[in-house]
Amino acid sequence: MSAGFETLNLHPQLKQAIDALGFTSMTPIQEKVLKFTLAGHDAIGRAQTGTGKTAAFLVSVINDLLTNPVQGQRYRGEPRALILAPTRELALQIESDAKELTRFCGLNVVTLLGGVDFEKQKAQLDANFVDIIVATPGRLIDLVEQKEVWLDQIEFLVIDEADRLLDMGFIPSVKRIVRYSPRKEQRQTLMFSATFSYDVLNLAQQWLFEPVTVEIEPEKKTNADVEQRVYMVAKSDKYKLLQEILRDEPIEKVMIFANRRDQVRKLYDHLKQDGYKVVMLSGEIAQDKRLKMLDQFKNGQHHIMIATDVAGRGIHVDGVSHVVNFTLPEQSDDYVHRIGRTGRAGTRGVSISFLSEDDAFYLPEIEKAIGQKLPLTRLDGYC
Question: CA–CA separation, 170 vs 356, rounded Å?
């Protein structure tokens, strides 16, 4: 039986927000990490998406800021806490969760993302003192170098999905950001990653001060509530099979993943032309349009979303009954992330992967990563 949040000595305004959200018991990562981080320790956590790690670091940050209000003079553009995320979607998800958890206190959360109007962001920074900045590295560097943001008063630094920041080539930017902030002995730093590679642990050694290490190892890397199917299909027949699945499966909402932007665009155009209510998420789409599409999918106006891995990472949408891997991902951890979009919070989900001659190469690595063999299905008329 996991412990409840009432066992932690949290600030009353934060506890009120947690109660209002209906959180009662802690997830394993929260139970393991919060006792250390609330006591002021640095921590490096290994946890997959969907484990409650976002709430774990937000509770730590918010409790610290509320318990230790600023005594001296404050200045505009000087945040007390900084949370770095690799993608715009993940940053927006963190912002949304942070706003829920700060709803009963006066903490000001500002999100700084590429693809959003620069002047608007400057106006947000000028409007009020900022307590928590959630940012992607590129835009934050721009604003620091233009002297719109000052990081020398950071009390709390969170680096989320460090493995993805590495994969996407953001580490030089993150290193610069860390250099602008106080020394590691003078701030509290938390770092989360789905994997503990040599490079991730090396960065932790540089950036964290005497950290505790917390690992949440699912018995299987994939959720037991997700039924995983692999259909063998010729590349030329994939679209026809997709149409059959959309017609025959009891779909509430479905996320369809492809590896490249051009594949996502082609699928989107094809489905739209055939009368499906569909949205797409990929890096080529302007930020305001992406947000609009994401909202249409969340509120059920459209029930099909097509996405690349980068755009789909960190998106939490309730009611996703199915995930379709139109192409198998080249990285095995992307498979885990993809199918983690369904079967959340105790509901059942279905993952369907298309396996053509082009995809077969990636299957052994995926099976190795998830620790199980995936049953292959040959469908009549498709192979």
Answer: 33
Regarding pTM above 0.85, the answer is: no
93-144 pLDDT, tens digit each: 999 999 999 999 989 999 999 888 888 898 999 999 999 999 999 999 999 9
| Tens-digit pLDDT profile for residues 35-55 | 999 999 999 998 877 778 899
| Alpha carbons 115 and 311: distance in angstroms, whole number | 13
Q: What is the pLDDT of residues 334-358, one digit of tens each?
A: 898 888 888 776 678 899 999 988 8
258 and 306 together in one domain: yes
- CA gap 230, 219 in Å, rounded: 22
User: What is the domain extent for residue 44?
Assistant: 5-215
Examine the domain organization and report whether 32 and 172 are in the same domain.
Answer: yes
C-beta of residue 343 within 8 angstroms of C-beta of residue 225: yes
Q: Are 48 and 194 in contact (CB under 8 A)?
A: yes
CATH number for the domain that contains residue 232: 3.40.50.300
